[in-house]
Amino acid sequence: MFERLAGYVRSFERNEGLQQQMAPPYAKTVLLDLEDGFGRPEDHDNSFPENPYINPYCLHPVEKALMDANFASVEMNLKRFIAARKVVIEFLESQYRCINSESRQLAEFVKSFKRTGLLLDPAREHRNHAPGLWSSIMCLNYAGEVLLRLEDYARTFVRDVPQETKSVFRLMQANFARSYKSLPRELAMKTASDLVESSWDKGCHFFFAA
Q1: Are the beta carbons of 84 and 61 closer than 8 angstroms?
Q2: Residue 32: its pLDDT value, please?
Q3: End-to-end CA distance of the chain
Q4: pTM of the model
Q5: Which is it for the CA torsion 58, 186, 138, 115, positive or negative?
């Protein structure tokens, strides 16, 4: 029961290291001695020094609820588990809706160019002649629009952070950003952006040749 909830929560986090820390042994051991759900911060200041979601002074609501659900599962407290699960699902629901909405909009945008003679014409023989039908300016404008939409879609996967925990993220901003910098999506987005910005022709070819 708990593993299914943990799996759902982990699907909102792309960093594998942070995924693993969402329900660590910490949740089964330290929480046994916590008072009022937090305990004394000085007892575990260095538990996860690189993870702003798990800060002893201000836990992220999802991490706190997931830890509580883990503890409830260990002690077989169904009422407590259901309450914790409700907190998790309600917090993530808005982000889930945003992801779905942006996904649909991106799909419709792509479909609008999958027509004969347009840049994403499914028939490759037509697409090979797209540069002759579209000016370089039109190609670049379309490439820019693609990047903007991809960036909007990518932002929906950034986890929501409540106001009371934003200060912790700001203090760790540089290290936190680096933990995502080498992930496949970030690398692909950077490649696409660099190609479009550095060369109109090369940028258009990158987007529309494959």
Answers
A1: no
A2: 47
A3: 43
A4: 0.70
A5: negative
Calpha distance 29→33 (Å, rounded): 8
Q: Which residue has the tokens 């911060």?
A: 41
- Tokens 């000016």: give the residue: 135
Please provide the average confidence, as pLDDT, over all residues in the chain: 77
Tokens 């952006």 belong to residue: 193
Contact 120, 134 (CB under 8 A): no
CA dist 196 to 63, 147, 191, 201, Å? 39, 9, 9, 8
| Residue 181 in tokens | 């910098």
**What does the alpha-carbon distance between residue 81 and residue 99 come to, in Å, rounded to a whole number?**
26
What is the Cα–Cα distance from 203 to 144, expressed in whole angstroms?
10
Among 74, 69, 102, 100, CA closest to 86: 69
Alpha carbon separation from 109 to 104, 205, 208 (Å, rounded): 9, 19, 14
Average pLDDT over residues 129-142: 60
Q: Name residues whose C-beta falls within 8 Å of residue 189's C-beta, 6 or more positions apart in sequence.
A: 150, 151, 154
